[in-house]
Amino acid sequence: MLSFRRITVLAHYITGTAAASASAITKLFLVITTLTTTTMTQAHPSDQQHLPTIVASNCSATFEVPTLREDYSFENSSLFPDGVIGERIPEIGFSQSIELLSAKPIFPSIQSKYQKIEIFESKHYGKILVLDGVTQLTERDANSYNEMMAHIPMFAHRKPERVLIIGGGDGYVLSEVLKHDSVVLADHVDLDGEVIEVCRKYFKWGEHAWADERTNLVVGDGAAFVRDAPDDYYDVIIQDSSDPFLVSDDGEETPLPSSVLYTSNHFMNIKRILRKGGIFNLQAETYTIPSDLKGIQLWRDQALQLGFASARYGTIAISTYPTGQIGFLLCESSSSSSDGEISYSSEADMMQHVKERFDRIKDTGKTTTYYHPRLQISSFDLPYWVEKAIYGDE
């Protein structure tokens, strides 16, 4: 799930009358910045039959939220009539916003154990999922991020059968994973069950994903689930988490709760529970923001140091994400395998199978709207300066 950035800007034009002789309308632009610590949406599979090592105590998670500086504001401001919801990135002086049809959410706000849940509507972007005042996704362009997060790793594996999804409480990544007929089990681990229930009701992709007999939904701590999962179990793991850190105006970096999913220890456990030839795909922020680019470099180096055969950054165009771009880090547990059932012998072999499998998806009437087979290769083509920053002289 997209965590649409660390600092939210709520703006509202308020009209009023000036002095009687002037009869002019004064427009006041009110900007409210809110630092939000969006909770990662996770779930966790306590199906005792196929995961005997998972215990019930893992179904609830406790996070030690980092202490933030006193000069941060935690005011949760509601949207005003005729309001817009937007985002500000102080690190690069960038902001953007979306106009709403109404300042009121389409249902009364829900306060879960972890966050405030709302859905608003806009003319162009349709329904907008908002957690703690922070935009997570919109109906208009959620396809780009979620289809790429799901299909790139799924097609990178020749025959993915067991899949783990960490986060993604909106259910979109899960719904895309289930389009692959090779899947026999999709474990979905998400922290906030109330987000899942809201998305099940209000977004079309949520209607059937969790009802699919291949889906095992567990509400709980994704990091703990991975820690306790058995070795060599999953073919593909997709980590659809929120931002792991925030950066203030003065450049100070503060970790957020989801930072636990980006640690060396978590990556090590991810690799341990992947089967031979397994794929790990994680939300990897945008290269247009310096602190994010630094994170991409760190996470890639970390994956390689822990024994992943490769770690490549792919790019996604999405208009409602700050600067219009976000990416993923695709990590392969091994470069080749003697078992032709799980790995490809060459790029040409991969593309042939990707096209065949993609055609089968289209034949079922469950085609994609953003992903297509050529993106399996071209999404890794980056601007030269980004290539140099991430890969150096490799």
Structural class of the secondary elements? alpha+beta
User: Which overall shape is indicated by the principal axes computed on the Cα atoms?
Assistant: globular
The stretches of 5 or more residues where confidence is low (pLDDT under 50) are 2-81
Strand order of the largest sheet: 11-10-9-12-15-17-16
Task: Indicate the mean pLDDT.
Answer: 82
* SSE run: EEEEEEEEHEHEHEHEEEHEHEEHHH
C-alpha-based Rg, rounded: 21 Å
Separate helix tally: 9
The number of distinct β-strands equals 17
Helix content: 10-25%
The amount of beta strand, in percent, is 25-35%
Task: Describe the sheet with the most strands.
Answer: 7 strands, mixed
Structure report:
By secondary structure, the protein is an alpha+beta fold. It has helices spanning 142-156, 172-177, 193-202, 222-228, 264-273, 290-305, 347-363, 375-378, 384-391, and strands at 7-17, 25-35, 84-89, 94-99, 110-111, 116-122, 126-131, 134-138, 162-167, 185-190, 215-219, 234-240, 245-247, 253-255, 274-283, 310-317, 325-332. A hairpin with a 7-residue loop joins strand 16 and strand 17. The longest helix is centred in the last third of the chain and has 17 residues, at 347-363. The chain starts with 6 loop residues before the first strand and ends with a helix.
